[in-house]
Amino acid sequence: MKIRDVMTKDVHLAHPGDTIQDVASRMAKGGFGFIPVADGDRLIGTITDRDIVVRALAAGAAPTASVIEFISRDAQTVLDTDDLKVVLDLMASKQIRRAPVVDKNGRVVGVVSLGDLSIRVKEKYAGEALESISR
């Protein structure tokens, strides 16, 4: 099974000039807490609802502050053509719950999350990896 078979394809992207209020509003409306941040369609980082609260609001940032100031720049990505085991191993080893998915040209094409894996994956090693990530 390939990552493209389990990833969420309807990915919302934030851009460097977006405000933290705009991004938080999109998260609230969409019911998600993670958005890849891209310059065009090239990934430059990610931002989570926790980043907005802990890095931005707790530090006194204005709602109009640019999201670029608060992103995590070391996003762990996977290729859409990778075998599922690649993302499972990455999530387990890095203790992450989501990963942006890029195509061979580095363009963001989706996101794969623990939720995606728990719903769509029935392979034996998936349960073990999910348990390891959740600890």
Give the SSE layout:
Blueprint: H1 20-30, E1 34-39, E2 42-48, H2 49-56, E3 78-79, H3 84-94, E4 98-102, E5 108-113, H4 114-120, H5 124-134
Parallel strand pairs: 3-4
Antiparallel strand pairs: 1-2, 4-5
What does this molecule look like?
The chain has helices at residues 20-30, 49-56, 84-94, 114-120, 124-134, and strands spanning 34-39, 42-48, 78-79, 98-102, 108-113. With 135 residues, it is α+β, with helices and mostly antiparallel strands. The strands form two sheets. It has a three-stranded mixed β-sheet with strand order 3-4-5. Strands 1-2 form a two-stranded antiparallel sheet. Helix 3 packs parallel to helix 5. The longest helix is centred in the first third of the chain and has 11 residues, at 20-30. It is globular. The relative contact order is 0.21.
At a glance:
The chain has 5 helices and 5 strands. It has helices at residues 20-30, 49-56, 84-94, 114-120, 124-134; strands at residues 34-39, 42-48, 78-79, 98-102, 108-113.
Using DSSP, what is the number of strands?
5
Q: What kind of sheet is the major sheet?
A: 3 strands, mixed
Distance between the termini: 25 Å
Quaternary = single chain
Provide mean pLDDT, rounded: 89
Number of H/I helices: 5
**Secondary-structure class:** alpha+beta
Helix content: 25-40%
User: What's the Cα radius of gyration?
Assistant: 15 Å
Strand proportion? 15-25%
Question: Could you list some keywords that capture this structure?
Answer:
135 residues, 5 strands, alpha+beta, three-stranded mixed β-sheet, 19% strand, single chain, two-stranded antiparallel ribbon, 5 helices
